[in-house]
Amino acid sequence: MKKTGYLTFGAVMSALAVVTMLMSYVPTLTYSIPALAGMFIMVVVIEIGPKWALFSYISAAIVSMLVAEPEAALFFVLLFGCYPIIKVYLERIKLKPVAYICKLLIFNAAVVLIFFVFMKLMGVETDFGGVEKYVIAGVWVLANAVFLVYDYAVKSVSNWYFYKLHSRVSKMIKR
Fold this sequence. Notes:
The chain has helices at 3-21, 32-48, 50-67, 70-80, 83-90, 96-121, 132-164, 166-172. By secondary structure, the protein is an all-alpha fold. α1 runs antiparallel to α2 and α2 runs antiparallel to α3. It starts with a helix and ends with a helix.
């Protein structure tokens, strides 16, 4: 495929990610919509590689920051949009425990950064009546467990995509 074809395919997937991010204004979808939008970046990784997926991610991230709900946009920009690209390299680590530790470190760094942005820069305050540290610790543990489920889901969805849709999509884009 020519570079213009790569660019076009990446742009279409970026546009689909941005359109998906527009649904982030539904309050119950703040965290799941960025994860879903990241799947379009995963398709770019599978079809034309991580380098082109990076361009798709950057363009989708910029537009998402302008049009999506701010917290969801931060989750897309700092975690779910770039994770399918990062995951390609993390899966190459031969020692699985080391790979999972790296994945959790990336997740926790992103969450801390998002927390910092919302709590410190945007002036959002938490008041849990003295049990704040226990609530945060509980949510933190639960969030890490959910992230591991998400990581497994990304792998499962990418395998499903590759075996069920890849041949059709690659014919359409004349790979």
